[in-house]
Amino acid sequence: MSLVLEGVDRTVGGEVYLNDINLTFERGEFNVLLGLTEAGKTTMMRIMAGLEPPSRGRVVEDGQDVTHVPVRKRSVGMVYQQFINYPSLSVYDNIASPLKLAGFSKSEIDRLVRTEAERLGIDHLIDRLPSELSGGQQQRCAMARALVRDAKLVLLDEPLVNLDYKLREGLRSELRSLFADRDTVVVYATTEPEEALVLGGNTTVLHEGRVIQNGVTAQCYRHPANTTVTQVFADPPMNLMPVEIADGQIKAEGLLSAPLPEHMKDLAPGHYTLGIRPHHLFVTAGEGRIGLRGTVEVAEIAGSVTYVHLEVNGRDWVIEERGVHQVHPGERFELFMDLTRAYAFDSADQLAAAPHS
Amino acid sequence: MGSNRRYIFLGLWLVFLMLPIYWLLMMSLKTNQEILSTFSLWPQNLTVDNYVKIFTDATWYPGYINSTLYVVLNVVISLTVALPAAYAFSRYKFLGDKHLFFWLLTNIMAPPAVFLLPFFELYNSVGLYDTHIAVALAHTLFTVPLAVWILEGFMSGVPKEIDETAYLDGYSWPRFFLTIFLPLIRSGVGVTAFFCFMFSWVELLIARTITSTEAKPIAVTMTRTVGASGLDWGLLATAGVLTLVPGALVIWFVRKHIARGFALGRV
Question: Hey, is the C-beta of B162 within 8 angstroms of any chain A C-beta?
């Protein structure tokens, strides 16, 4: 019971949108598609739904090739980034429309619509037109319509992007429970690493039309397969620096020279890329912290944390520090890092060492 | 001060605009004798004889029936043809779609007179001469491109995701189009119908060339009011007033959407 993409390519006018996608999505799991804009998330969803044909490859649903099955013969629910409802129908009729077309009885439709509306908290708005609802309610209505008929596949294409921050958090925390007891393949596309982490389940990281990592969300986050994943699946992205490992020392020309931390002891000597998350960098010295120098570019104070953007050895780095810190652009700045929390990527850009968690 | 001046010019403009129409209306309510002899701002001897004559005389009222008939036919044909065409232009990419779309509009650029001879000859040879459908079809040459352009603009304003959601929900195309899509572009359809109506209602050249008696439009009847005793001014004015009425009525219904129609739906 699953949806499988087999060697799927999508090329439009010579431009590659998707390149050799091989993925399996299981029923009852929450699958997150994570990628920057234009990574191919939407194209992939459209191919899964059957709205677009792949240039090559197959889409297999429960062992059946559905690549060229027309959408209306499939069983798919889709929620878009825009709030898509039928503007001339009431909320009730909007939610009821897939059921009516599937030939459910009147009483059955009524029961299902009311249950679904209640689960999404829009049961009191059922007689209104979509244009009379707020953005969040419109999106709830769209979700109810996608969910009401228990489709085999439910696709959510950045459904929370157009909502304001408060509504987004509310709906996001409900999402998991909405799908908890459903026997359906759920795919959720997002650009935000935080969303993937909150929603959990499985994460597939897409970049420029390719799958660069696929696995359990927390696992993907703790063990990013390569440096591209560290940039896509982290916000702010991981800080990177080329280093050399030799004689039990980790060195960067004129910047850093320190004994190897425990988890990097087994690495063969050579050139590596060091990665460290912004919250493992500090503005103050402490035990086991190694000092570095950088130039302040800008500081963003985001309430409880301050993001200090620096230039370190020609690269843009970010420190995430609790509290409010005043720094001045252009200032030489000493920052401290906790090397035991650092990642190392080898010269082939594969993860070589990750910190123990 | 500034706003006062604006109202003055607005008022003047209105007077200039409405004066001929006022004069036409007053003439239709006067006797020929009064029209020709005295200068009066309103009828001294109010009469509705002219109206009575037009509504009862068999040489007059069929003109209105004929005009209405072919105009309605034209609007119906234009919309039936243009709705699917506009949908295709707004939703699908196909070879030469942009060129075809532009080429449609170039149809309107040719003066109708160019088509007189071919239409006359063609309709004669297939036995359509002097029928309502002939005039309606001839007019579609101009109204269909216009309708496609206007409707395409309105349709492109509807997000494509609505179509897709409908297909995912299980709608067939005809059902989706009639129950979901058409209500969304209602005002566009109204405006389009208005533009087709307006063209067909006021077009004289083609209509008079390919008709003689059976489908003679009202405008043609009006140009033939010269009797042995000269022009019947009052009657002619009455016919004019009655010809204005349907246009005014239609404009009243679409007045809110008409600006968008003039912009071919692209606002």
Answer: yes
Rounded Cα distance between A63 and A73, Å, is: 16
- Residue of B161, B168, B171 lying closest to A77 (CB–CB): B168
Q: Distance between CA B218 and CA B220 in Å, rounded?
A: 5
Domains with residue ranges and CATH for chain A: 2-225 (3.40.50.300), 239-353 (2.40.50.140)
Strand-pair partners of A272: A243
Asked if A354 and A277 count as a contact pair (C-beta separation under 8 A), the reply is: no
Number of C-beta neighbours around residue B117 at 10 A: 10
Does residue B227 have a pLDDT over 80? no
- Whether chain A has a CB inside 8 Å of the CB on B169: the answer is yes
Q: Where are the beta strands (DSSP E) in A68-198?
A: 76-79, 153-157, 185-190
| Residue (of A32, A2, A28) closest to A204 by Cα position | A32
| Token reading at A303 | 């309430």
CA distance B199 to B219: 13
Q: Rounded to an integer, what is the distance from CA A209 to the centroid of its chain? A: 15
- Residue-level pLDDT at B84: 95
What pLDDT sits at residue B266?
65
Structure tokens at A294: 């950088």
Beta-sheet pairing, A249-252 with A256-259: antiparallel
Q: What angle do CA B22, B28, B33 make, to 5 degrees?
A: 115
Residue numbers of A between 64 and 83 with CB closer than 8 Å to B:
70-72, 74, 76-78, 80, 82
Tell me: pLDDT of A79 over 90.
yes
Number of Cβ within 10 Å of residue B2's Cβ equals 5
Residue with tokens 């992939």: A44
Please give, rounded to a whole number of angstroms, the shortest distance from the CA of B172 to a CA of chain A: 7
> What pLDDT digit, counting tens, does each position of A272-312 carry?
999 999 999 888 888 878 888 888 888 888 888 889 898 88
The size of the A-B interface in CB pairs under 8 A is 50
Burial label for A200, CB within 10 Å (0-12, 13-18, 19+), is middle
From B173, which residue of chain A is nearest by alpha-carbon distance? A72
* Residues on chain A touching B164 (C-beta within 8 angstroms): 51, 71, 78
Q: Which residues from A are below 8 Å from B180, CB to CB?
A: 86, 88-89
Q: Do A77 and B166 touch (CB under 8 A)?
A: no
Section B40-66 average pLDDT: 87
Q: Nearest CA to CA, how far is B99 from chain A (Å)?
A: 19
d(CA A120, CA A81): 17
Q: Does A131 touch chain B (CB under 8 A)?
A: no
B174 touches chain A (CB under 8 A): no
Q: Could A71 and B168 be called an inter-chain contact, meaning their C-beta atoms sit closer than 8 Å?
A: yes
If residue B62 lies in a helix (H) or strand (E), which one and from where to where? helix B61-91
CB-CB neighbors (< 8 A) of B167 in chain A: 51, 70-72
Domains of chain B: 1-47 (no CATH), 51-262 (1.10.3720.10)
Query: Which of A49, A82, A89 minimises the CB distance to B168?
Result: A49
Lookup result for tokens 């909320």: A91
Amino acid at B24: L
